[in-house]
Design goal:
Keywords: Membrane, Transmembrane, Transmembrane helix. This is MFS transporter. It is found in: Membrane. By secondary structure, the chain is mainly alpha-helical. The chain is built from 18 helices and 2 strands. Strand 1 and strand 2 form a beta hairpin.
């Protein structure tokens, strides 16, 4: 891949894994995940409370609005991250999604709910990419994998707090608390400084944040591969876990299945998975091999979820949700790889759009899932089990191909710009 080093020497990078930058990025992602996953936890209760009878289809509609907002926000914040700086995005996105979630606690109609999920989605789109980019450009290359591992491990545990808050305080207060946590986080911005690599590129007057430059030549294929790696995770979270009550009923689970508990156990597994995948990539000195291993494990657990739980207890179901969460715990590793694939002048654009396009793939996965569910095979509809199997297999195969054909980035020097 062609690289052009920028003329001035980089400012010194901090060697501390627990610097203010890593702490703020980790806590920002914690609140981000809390707010992102909260709707999946409160879907049934909140829609029922608003008098909505079809909680499945209307819930999918609201998920699509939220994820559609993340698609728009990914582009917006990604461009701003390369043009205006990583810090402006990190804190600007926190303000937007915090205010939107506070407003979400006051909704009275489905349409109000939908538009606020769209606005919250736009806000939620910026935090992770900006945080990972900032950490990747600040820590030395030997430690940046551990830094992003810390961000992810702390961050995904926000989903467990969301479940506990909902159980203790109800769905409206859960939105108020989430928004308040985000606004409180802004106080930590003192002592966090902009990336030296970004300041260097800015002083060199290099073109930055041109989103359309990603769609030229071989850069486009590299970018598409980055997007595809994250799709299996959002198939698992957006389809299998969000619709856990529906899958539990179809599988004949011997007791009621709670969407909130399914999310809790999945994200509990994600905490360990993100720690393991990030640590493994550092130990074996390969991002690719770590991702390939986790994709293979994910395939095995999707098959277990869909075909080996018939007639089992809710406890067994939640155990599989936990292990399934572990196997998709490569989220921060995926975003790190995306950030490492591109130069400083496009890095925030890629690191922000890639996870949000992967999250936004739910907008395509949901109608594909619904269409496959009703598809006639041998005179019988494929159903949600068959649809889940087909969609899961396709997303995993494409992601495995993407990982296997992209360059290794472990230990790569990030102090360069993309030739535009």
């Amino acid at each position: 891949m062609p690289q052009t080093s920028t003329p001035p020497a980089s400012p010194p990078k901090t060697a501390s894994l627990f610097s203010a930058i890593v702490i703020v990025a980790a806590l920002g992602y914690f609140v981000d995940i809390y707010d992102l996953i909260l709707f999946s936890i409160v879907r049934v209760e909140s829609l029922t409370d608003l008098g909505i009878k079809d909680v499945t289809n209307e819930g999918l509609y609201l998920i699509n609005m939220q994820m559609g907002g993340m698609l728009l926000g990914g582009i917006l914040w990604g461009i701003l991250g390369d043009k205006r700086g990583r810090l402006s995005v990190l804190f600007g996105s926190i303000v937007l999604y915090s205010l939107a979630n506070i407003a979400n606690g006051f909704v009275q109609t489905l349409e109000q709910y939908a538009w606020l999920r769209l606005i919250a989605g736009i806000g939620l789109a910026g935090e992770l990419g900006a945080g990972i980019t900032l950490v990747s450009e600040t820590l030395p290359k030997e430690k940046r994998g551990y830094g992003t591992m810390i961000v992810a491990t702390v961050g995904v545990s926000g989903a467990m707090l969301a479940y506990w808050i909902k159980e203790e305080f109800g769905w409206r207060n859960s939105y108020f608390i989430g928004g308040g946590l985000g606004l409180a986080l802004l106080a930590l911005r003192v002592g966090v400084f902009e990336s030296g690599m970004f300041e260097q590129a800015k002083e060199a007057n290099v073109e930055r944040g041109n989103f359309f430059r990603l769609f030229t030549g071989p850069r486009l294929l590299r970018y598409l591969k980055c997007l595809l790696i994250g799709v299996p995770l959002w198939f698992v979270v957006g389809i299998l876990i969000t619709l856990a009550p529906e899958f539990g009923a179809k599988l004949g689970i011997t007791g009621p299945v709670s969407a909130g508990l399914a999310v809790f156990w999945c994200y509990f597994g994600l905490v360990f998975g993100d720690f393991a995948s990030g640590g493994l990539s550092q130990l074996i000195k390969s991002r690719k091999r770590a991702l390939q291993l986790f994709l293979l494990m994910c395939g095995a657990l999707i098959a277990t979820y869909l075909f080996l739980l018939n007639g089992k207890s809710p406890t067994a179901f939640y155990r599989v949700c936990f292990v399934l969460g572990f196997t998709v715990g490569f989220w921060a590793l995926f975003v790190t790889v995306a950030a490492e694939q591109f130069g400083t002048n496009l890095r925030a654009t890629v690191a922000t759009t890639a996870p949000n396009f992967a999250r936004g793939s739910v907008v395509l996965l949901v109608p594909a899932f619904k269409w496959l569910s009703g598809l006639q095979v041998g005179g019988q509809p494929l159903g949600i089990i068959g649809a889940g199997a087909v969609l899961g297999l396709v997303s995993l195969l494409i992601a495995f191909w993407a990982v296997s054909t992209m360059p290794e980035t472990h230990g790569k020097d990030l102090d360069y710009v993309e030739p535009l």
